[in-house]
Amino acid sequence: MMNRRFAFDTAKLIVATVIGLVVVFPLYYIFAGAFYKIGEFTAYPPTLFPDSFQLGNFIRALRDTLLIRFMGNSLLVASVGSVLRMTIAVLCAFPMAFLRFKGKNLLFFLVLGTMMLPSDALIIENYLTISRLGLVDTYFAIISIYLLAPVQMFMLRQAFKTIPQTYREAAAIDGCGDFRFLTLIVLPMAKPIVLTLTLQSFVTIWNTYLWPLLVTNDPAMRTVQVGITMLGFAESLDYGPTFAAIALILLPSLSIFLIFRKKIVEGIAAGAIVG
C-alpha cells in the first residue's frame, strides 16, 4: 500500500512538473528573447540562453515606437475601466442579493441572458454607436464596452447571498442604511472575490486588442496590444525589439499575480464555494 501511494504521489509530481514547465516556458522564452541578437533567433540548433544581457532591444523598442504612451493609455483604460466595471457590478449585485422588489428574478435572468451573446456579434453595432456619438479616439470609447459585466454581477450576487439577511436587519436597527451596510459590512466580508474580480477585469482590459484597434485611429491613442504591432515586420527576422516590448507589457500582469497571488487563490476558492 505504501509503495502504491508513493508511486501515485511521484506520478502526480512528475505530471505537475511537466505541466508547469509547459506553462512557464513561453514566459521564459519571451524574456530570454528580449536579449537575443538577430542571429540567435535563426541559430540551429536553437539556443535557450542569450549570449549577453544587453538592453539594446529594450532601447530600440522604446525609441522606435510610442511604447511608453501606449502603456500609459492601457494603464489608464484598464485602471479606470476595472474600477467602474466593478462599481457597477457591485451596485447591481447588491439589490439582487438583499432587496425584494417585483420582477427581480426576471430582471436577473435577463441580465444572465446577455452572457449568451458573443461579444464579437455585437462589435459592429457597438462601433456604429460610438461613431455616431463622435467618441472615436477617446478613452471612453475604449472603456465603454467593458463597463457592464454580467459575469461579475452574477459572481458578486452569489457571494453576497452567503451573507445572512439578519446582518442587514441588525444594521437597519442600528440606523445603518443600505449604502453604509454595503460599504462597511458586505464589501469587507466579500473582499477576496471582489479583489479577484477587479484584478481579472484589469488584466482583461489590459490585454484587449480588437476593440481598441477599431475605435482608435490616432497612434497616440493606441493601447499596448495595438501599438506593439508597429514593431513587427514580415520581412524582418529581428524580433528582439518585439520580444522586449512584449516583456515590458507582461510585467504589470505578472506583478499583479505575484503580489496578489494569495488573495487570488482565496477569491477563486470563495467563488468555487459560492458556485
Write a structural description.
- The protein has 275 residues and is mainly alpha-helical.
- The protein has a single domain, classed as Orthogonal Bundle (MetI-like fold), CATH 1.10.3720.
- 73% of the residues lie in helices and 0% in strands.
- It has 14 helices and no strands.
- α1 (2-33) crosses α14 and α11 (191-207) runs antiparallel to α14.
- 28% of the residues are buried.
What proportion strand? Answer: under 5%
Number of strands: 0
Mean pLDDT: 84
Radius of gyration, rounded? Answer: 24 Å
Overall 3D shape: globular
Write the CATH homologous superfamily.
MetI-like
How far the N terminus sits from the C terminus, by CA atoms, comes to 36 Å
Please bin the fraction of helical residues. over 70%
Mind telling me which CATH architecture this is? Orthogonal Bundle
Task: Using brief descriptors, characterize the structure shown.
globular; 73% helix; 0% strand; mainly alpha; MetI-like fold; 14 helices
Provide a short characterization of the protein structure.
The protein has helices at residues 2-33, 38-41, 56-64, 67-98, 104-113, 119-132, 139-144, 150-160, 165-173, 178-189, 191-207, 210-215, 224-227, 240-274. The chain is mostly helical and 275 residues long.
Give a topology summary.
Layout: H1 2-33, H2 38-41, H3 56-64, H4 67-98, H5 104-113, H6 119-132, H7 139-144, H8 150-160, H9 165-173, H10 178-189, H11 191-207, H12 210-215, H13 224-227, H14 240-274
Helix pairs in contact: 1-14, 3-14, 4-8, 4-11, 11-14
